[in-house]
């Protein structure tokens, strides 16, 4: 079958889809608030899959269902619910023992494990993540929850003792911050949402979480688990348009932590609506334009393999993706020949098909935006150098390798977040160094080469510009025990398993002069277990 025939027939007929991957429409009216799963009888947001189906009258997008379009009224009710549950730090959840909070989180993990098949299927249909990666996202999320539990146990063990300094007895533990608003991204709607929601919860905060615009229905199977696992008002789900439901609660001044993963422009708009900015803690994962620097002594085969994964895994729709490649001119032709050959072998198709690499793009008009960026670069001297690059049909587009890209083109600085790979040739190593220095973002970079002298010289300036420098490997988030953050406009706060526990809490101390009367009081409190905060219990 020719490429053109393949592209024209890329979408399936509904009856040809394997039975285990077919999906029933979900007309969701439920939302969780104040410990209740409530029913919404107002307007609904229709959910259409990026996957088109072949019908008698041509292609049509598969309808997946709908979810509630709540209003500002319900948003304020969610805030009121979270505030009552927190009760100025006096509520059941923030004053609960760490051990009991851990049991709630473990119960939740156990319950959602049973929903794996439903969630994986919805990941495929809603955001077109292939089957293997959808399974990986669910499994990694479950692993993250359990690793967070273990990390808190370790943190609590280290805190379960008294310190005596300069005649003062003290015990330092971490206390919650208040009401947390969590907003995750569409590309990792489950995992990235939970990397803020779970640590926020386990540290004793109460939460409101708004699902991403794409990847919304997949939370519906989890609502009952949330309700059953946590006390009333600790978790509240907020469905609807962000511009409708978020401004009322932000402008109230009662959101204590804003956890957001998405674009800097949206984050800035929402932050400005908070009337007490000094009281608002921000945990942000924003934009990135991670470069790959390919030196003339790089192992070409290894570099091609890593750059292929780095640029085009999940169609390049990852904040950690390699979004621009700098290649020394001496090896540019050799690298590009092998890289383009590897791109040509990528398999297009539907997410449930075995071995599929390129799937439909969830965002409407995304292929048009990609083509606009490509055409602008072509008008300024670049070319698409891989066979069939940028060929598209509805929501699917075959990757385009664009070369040579220069600073005059939008692709040089714009985060494309899609299957377009800009490649910049360079002679002096100062070219990529200056690019990174003057970039508005600073998440990660990758260096490919063998010379330790050259790599060593690059490490020292670049670690002051980005927060992770990868040697002969793609940019990535994992393992989750490593710090994940960024400089400049890329991030605020650090998200890893242990760092996230700290970012959603604050060190708090109970102190007393080391006098006999005080020692007796502290001993009676701890031995009698009269305080959940001040204790010497050791969690196994």
Strand order of the largest sheet: 15-18-19-14-13-21-22
CATH-assigned homologous superfamily of the largest domain? Aldehyde Dehydrogenase, Chain A, domain 1
Number of helical runs? 17
* Sequence stretches where pLDDT stays below 50 over 5 or more residues: none
Rg over CA atoms, rounded to whole Å, is 25 Å
Instruction: Please state the average pLDDT score.
Output: 97
Query: What characterizes the major β-sheet?
Result: 7 strands, mixed
Reading off the top of the CATH hierarchy, the class of the largest domain is best stated as Alpha Beta
CA-based shape: globular
Number of domain units: 2
CATH architectural grouping of the largest domain: 3-Layer(aba) Sandwich
Structural class: alpha/beta
Give the strand tally: 25
Report what the structure shows.
The structure is a single chain. The chain is globular, with a radius of gyration of 25 Å. Helix 2 crosses helix 9 (242-251) and helix 5 packs across helix 6. By secondary structure, it is of the alpha/beta class. A 7-stranded mixed β-sheet has the order 15-18-19-14-13-21-22, with helices on both faces. Strands 10-9-8-11-12-24 form a 6-stranded mixed β-sheet, with helices on both faces. The termini are far apart. The longest helix has 29 residues, at 131-159. It folds into 2 domains: 69-285, Aldehyde Dehydrogenase, Chain A, domain 1; 290-485, Aldehyde Dehydrogenase, Chain A, domain 2 (3-Layer(aba) Sandwich), CATH 3.40.309.10. 37% of the residues lie in helices and 22% in strands. It is built from 17 helices and 25 strands. Helix 15 links the parallel strand 21 (444-448) and strand 22 (468-471).
